[in-house]
Each structure stands twice: as C-alpha cells, then as structure tokens.
C-alpha cells in the first residue's frame, strides 16, 4: 500500500473517531429520515423521525423478534417493510437458538462498509510494521457456496461476499500470494492445497501468514501433515498432482510450476520430516513477521496452537465484525492477544449499549462458567431502572451488550456480544471482546449455546431409556487440540433400577447417542461437520459420583454450594481432568451426518 494511501486512511480514522458523537447523530438521523415510513418503524413512530422518540418507543429486539419480517422478505415480499434501501443479497450469520442460520439484509452501503474495514486495518498495520510492501501475505482464504432464496436474491456468508467484492479484487487481493480464482474456488481441499503450494514456492516473498478467524489454523496444519509429501513432489517434478482437477485451481497453478525445483524440495522435505513441528511456520516462511488472525473471544482457544507452530510470532487480531454490522478495528495491532481492544468506528452503524452488571462475584462466576445472562439487564431496561447508553457515553471499565441500528433494516438489534470498555481513541471507545452471550461451546465459527446443547442432549437421551439408563449429569468441552476440533461430552449414567457401579454400556447405543446429539445440533454445526471442519463428537461416560467431585472442586474454589450449577461447558483444565480421570467408556459418532 502506498505511503500516501496509508496516510489518507489513517487520517480518516482520526477524523471519524474525533467526531464520534456527531457521526453517530448523523447516522441515526439518516436512518430515520430514510426508513421512518417502513412498516416496522411506522408501527412505533407513526412516520416521525425524532431521535428521542426512536429511543423511547422503538424496542430493543433479538433476531427472533424480527424474524417474521425478514422471512417475509426472504420469501419475496418487498423489503420496504423493514428498509427503503435496495437489498442486494442476504448475509448468513451464525445460527439462531432455533438452529437455522440468521438472514441479514445487505445493501451496497453495507458491502462497501464491510470492505472498507480490512483496508483501514491494512493502513494501521503498515504504520506499526515496516517493510510490508516489500513482499506478500500468504492468506488462507476460502469461499462458500451461495444459494438462491425465493426472493430471487442470493444468500451467502459475509466472508464469501467480501472475497468476491470489487474492493477485495482491486486492492487487498494484490497483497496476497494466491490468484483470485483459487481463492474463489468452492473446492476447499484443492484450493487449500494450491494456496499452500504457491505460498511455499513464493516463500521468500511471504512477510505474513494470515486468515480471518484463527480456527483455520488447525485445519491448515492437519492439511500440511496429510499433504506435504505431495507438495514437495510437485515442487521437485514441476508437475501438479493429478487430484487437482478443478480448472479454477489447476489453470492458475500452471504459471507457478514452470519447471522442476529440486533445490527447494530438498530444503523443505527435512523441515516436514522433523519429528517436532514446533515453530514450523517460521521454518517454512522465514521472513514472516506476524500471523494475521482473529484470536479474541472464542478464537482465543487457538492461541496456544498458533504459538506452538509459529514459534511465537506476533499474532494480530485485526477487526471485530459481524454479519449484522461492522464494529471496529484494532488500533494497537502489536498488543498481546489478551490485551486486544477494538476501537469502534462511528460511521459504521448507530451503536447503543446495554450496561451489564458484572460487579457481584456470582455474576463474574457466571460469566466464567456459563456465559453471561443479560436478561436481568434487559428487565431493568424495560422497567426503566437501567439506561441504554450511546457510543460516546460508555464508561471506562464497564461491561455492555452491544445493540445496533443500521440502514439495512435492523433497529435496536441485540447482537449478543458482551464487551468491556478499555479506553478511548479520541472520542470513540475501545472495547475488549468479552463473550458471546450464552455460547457454551465453540469450534471454528460454530457457536453452540447452552440451550442448543441441552436440547440436543435431551433428544439423544431417548436412546438410553430402553436400556434402563438414566443420564444424571453432563458437561462438555471443546477439544481444540485435535485436528479438526470436536466437542466432547461427559455423561454420568446410572442404572435406573439399580445402584450398581458397574455399567454394561452397549457401544451401538452410545454411538447412536453421539449421532443423535450431532443431528440435533444446529445448521452451522452440521454444515461444519459435513465439511469436516469439526470432528466426530465424543461421549465420555464417567463413573457415578464424578460430578460430585466436580462440585467439590468448584466449591473449594469459592462457589456457593447452594447456588452451584453444574457448568454446561468446562474451560478449566483441572475440572476437565477430574472428569477425565473417572471415565469408564469412550464413544464416538461414526458415519456421515444426513
Ligand atoms: P457472524 O455474524 O456469524 O459472522 O458472527 C459474528 C460474531 O462473531 C460476532 O457477533 C462475535 O460474536 C464474533 N466475532 C466477530 N469478530 C470477532 C472478534 N474480533 N473477536 C471475537 N469475536 C468476534
């Protein structure tokens, strides 16, 4: 990126954040002016565009509250029930508690905003790390298929929408090692193979290794483990492996494999053959200065893995985004992953914040074990004893749930994320991402809530009944060290009619339970399972009494026995070990999901 462009973009960030209050007022004014006549807003405002009336009468909502409006638009009704803007596509967000993906209306303005975030971030990174323009980034980027909706518009993930946007194709794409056709290929294994192969052929140009979310890294490592021999052989012979058949991968590869390169193959092979792969990324790409990947929130589970394979290169978490709105960027990219905060960009959407009370120890504990329940804050909001605040009015150190209003038909919409104010950049606050509300388990971009997990386990429990078994307690954890990651459930079983300790577990029944859980989890989980981005679910049956030991452990750490609730998801190593040491049988889901 040219110096003048970097300076221009940095100046823009300074301007926007210095005028955060005015920018926010302007955005809300514009949204109300354009959309006051929509069915939705009209119901509450009767055509008025006053900002105070908006705050007084328009309710704070979740997806479920507005789903019927969105469904009507997906089914082909004109979008002006929610927005007067022209809808260009639907963006699919992570699933609802009901299990289906969420549809978010998108406009040209949304796409442009979404595309501007990586550009701004590029300028910030260039400011902090010198010499990036002297080489390229090996970014592992993948596109997902889109599909048609009855409205005639396409629905797709926001990453796919971004990768096919003109902004990406004309600007950022020039900074990466892989040709666009390969990035846009829908054949993920072939695309991954070619991206890695080109990255290795161009290894001396590679100054950074990246992706969007850190969850891509375990897949990439596993893929290299499975394919490094083919990759080295292709480099040695100058011939692309026959299994790369997709023309969008094969054709662009030909210009990279022009002639045999045994020198490079001789250099790479010993690196791959080494017993330990610790630090392998820096051995393969010796000029890499940093890893570009989001490692905040649920992605923090991958920090250890990235540190291990990269030899502790700095990891830069670039931005905080969602399908519903873009929020902010990391203005201090070289901060350690645990200290990352995102500066909100006030021209992206109209932001409001519900204060979340985290003062009492019980609540802090709740946050730690079970995710944050914010219903209390909403209740307070409804009865007038709590105040939803504007972007510029948030207080340092306070926790909030973020609420957005956009031109594309979301009004006071609860995104579901809990954030903590860590400071201000000019007048705009910086937030640390604390947690997604009610998410129990998370691997890759799947987020399974406590409610979803409990529903799925209930569905599977039916399988136990004919055998006289009772499920007495369960918990879970996301095993992010196996590749791909997977969910492991601990089940404590008891014979309904006997107190015997010895359980005769029938593996067919237990495998069927694993399967029923998987089949009952949401769309995103099942999709990722089918794509092998999540491994088969495992149930570990523990001895009767194991969960009592677990409770003793938490009580010894200060939990109140009367208020103790079995954590639905375990994040503490010692707690997992307590259950693990009492396992009497391990069972896996097998076969493909329907
Ligand atoms: P989706 O709309 O499916 O793309 O998911 C968006 C959600 O991903 C956000 O609401 C956050 O919960 C999470 N997310 C996005 N960016 C970050 C980030 N930088 N750190 C932590 N979580 C993030």
From TrEMBL:
Gene Ontology molecular functions: acid-amino acid ligase activity
Family matches, as Pfam families: GH3 (PF03321), GH3_C (PF23572), GH3_M (PF23571)
UniProt-listed InterPro entries: GH3, GH3_C, GH3_M
GO cellular component: cytoplasm
Family assignment from sequence similarity: Belongs to the IAA-amido conjugating enzyme family.
Keywords, alphabetical: Ligase
Upper taxonomic lineage: Eukaryota, Viridiplantae, Streptophyta, Embryophyta, Tracheophyta
Domain called GH3 middle: residue spans: 342-436
The GH3 C-terminal domain, residue ranges: 452-571
Protein name: GH3 auxin-responsive promoter
Domain of life: Eukaryota
